[in-house]
Amino acid sequence: MGMNHRLMRPTASGSGPKSVSGLLAWFDAGDSSTLTLNGSAVSQWNDKSGNGYSVSQPTSNNQPALTGTVLGRPTIDFDGSNDCLFSDNTGLSAAMSGDKSLTAFVVGQMHTTAEASINNVGAWISFGSTSTGTPLLYIRAAADSGNFQFVVRNDASSTVGGMFVSSDLIGGASPSSFLVSITSPSQGAAVERAHAVIRGSTTSATNTASAARPAGNITLNRFTIGALGTNAFSDFFPARISEVILYSKVLSDADRTKVVAWLAKRYNVTTPVI
User: Fold this and answer.
1) How far apart are CA 103 and CA 179, in angstroms?
2) Residue 255 belongs to a domain
3) Which of 73, 66, 74, 13 is nearest to 44 (CA)?
4) What are the φ/ψ torsions at residue 69 (nearest 5 degrees)?
5) What is the mean pLDDT of residues 208-231?
6) Of 122 and 186, the one with more pLDDT
7) Number of neighbours of residue 62 by Cβ within 10 angstroms
8) What is the DSSP string of 36-91?
9) What is the rounded CA–CA span in Å between residue 222 and residue 87?
10) Structural domains in the chain (count)
11) Is residue 150 included in any domain, yes or no?
């Protein structure tokens, strides 16, 4: 008799994000207890790491909607025009302030060609400052391509590290879903890495890239989901984000593989090789 694959699915309290040390924040659209709704719109998204963080949007017209699914799980839909959720002046928004390290995982769905006409880029997450127009760290879809882009800066003007990961993210009427991870070391010639497991209509593909991040310091106080969050919001994402997991360190290869494999099973994504 074949094994029931439902019995093989890991639980959040077992081999999930909390089983890896350094968990900073965990946003899960599939956990309704973490969401504050204004009708179908999301006014606040609480993290489930146990650290008590949240991202919110006080302006009703700028609140994303809890609607649809990504790979069978609930998702939050951003309109690409003004929707975003953010946190100012908290330990979460200052997590990359100074010269800190980070590992981030983001699960979502790229925009359709129609949504691309609203905004063909769109930031998924970012760390920035309310006093400067330049973000420190952001992950977003790359303009006019199926790639995603990861950028880190060492001050308010110069880009110090960045990479494109070549992936077939844009899928016309049926856009691809993505499971992306990035690591950013604290300083020096250490190597950042980015990785994507892309689920198209019938296939999955895994791609990786790396780049060096020289040392640098910046004061940060804004974390944003769905847009670039600086002294003004911009680069709004016109599609869906289902899960964001942040660690306040560079995970070991073993731990990073553990989280990717757990997410891949959770969203039924194949080929979780990093």
Assistant:
1) 13
2) yes
3) 66
4) -140, 160
5) 80
6) 122
7) 21
8) EEETTEEEEEE--SSS--EEE---GGG--EEEEEETTEEEEE--SSS--EEEESST
9) 6
10) 1
11) yes
pLDDT, averaged across the chain:
80
pTM of the prediction?
0.87
Instruction: Read off the pLDDT of each residue in 106-132 and give the average, rounded to a whole number.
Output: 86
Residue whose pair of structure tokens reads 């719109």 in the numeric block? 41
Is 178 part of a structural domain of the chain?
yes
The mean per-residue pLDDT over the stretch 56-69 comes to 97
Please indicate, yes or no, if residue 242 is contained in any of the structural domains. yes
The full length of the chain comes to: 274
- Distance in angstroms (rounded) separating the CA atoms of residues 34 and 48: 7
Q: Measuring CA to CA, how many Å separate 33 from each of 27, 29, 30, 100, 245?
A: 11, 9, 9, 31, 17
Q: Is 58 exposed, middle or buried (0-12, 13-18, 19+ CB in 10 A)?
A: exposed
Range of the domain at 181: 5-266
Is residue 118 a contact partner of residue 79, using CB atoms and an 8 Å limit?
yes
Helices and strands in the chain, H and E counts: 3, 19
Query: Helix, strand or coil for residue 149?
Result: strand
* Backbone angle region of 50, left / alpha / beta, with phi > 0 → left and psi within -120 to 50 → alpha: left
CATH of the domain at 196: 2.60.120.200
